[in-house]
Amino acid sequence: MADDLNERGMELRRKMFGAEGADKRIQEASDFVRPLEDFVTSECFGNTWNRGVLDHKTRSMITIAMLTALGGQGGQIRNHVKGAINNGVSKDEIREILRHAAIYCGVPRSVDAFKNAEAMLKELGLE
Prior knowledge:
Blueprint: H1 2-17, H2 19-27, H3 34-47, H4 56-69, H5 74-86, H6 91-105, H7 107-123
Helix pairs in contact: 1-2, 1-3, 1-5, 4-5, 4-6, 5-7, 6-7
């Protein structure tokens, strides 16, 4: 079962973040960090992200909103914007999520999330 979750998790990580990014993250993980990467791959992406109730697009949108609520989490916002685009979330939908978050999470958190989202959109050639 663990191998299946790991395989499913790596498949989704590659789809969302690109094969190079997903594989590089695992390959470059130190002995100290590897248990965390294994956990993220199997439990986060292999298990939670692959439950059938919510599709990947919806989960991406929720994740961006929650990361904004947590205070930006800059690198995570950037990564999950890339994943959201690959899961079918549009640039306009990302903008609306962050605008909505300004009301419920606070303007400073939303400003930081906008900055990080825009950086990834530029990197992807979408801004």
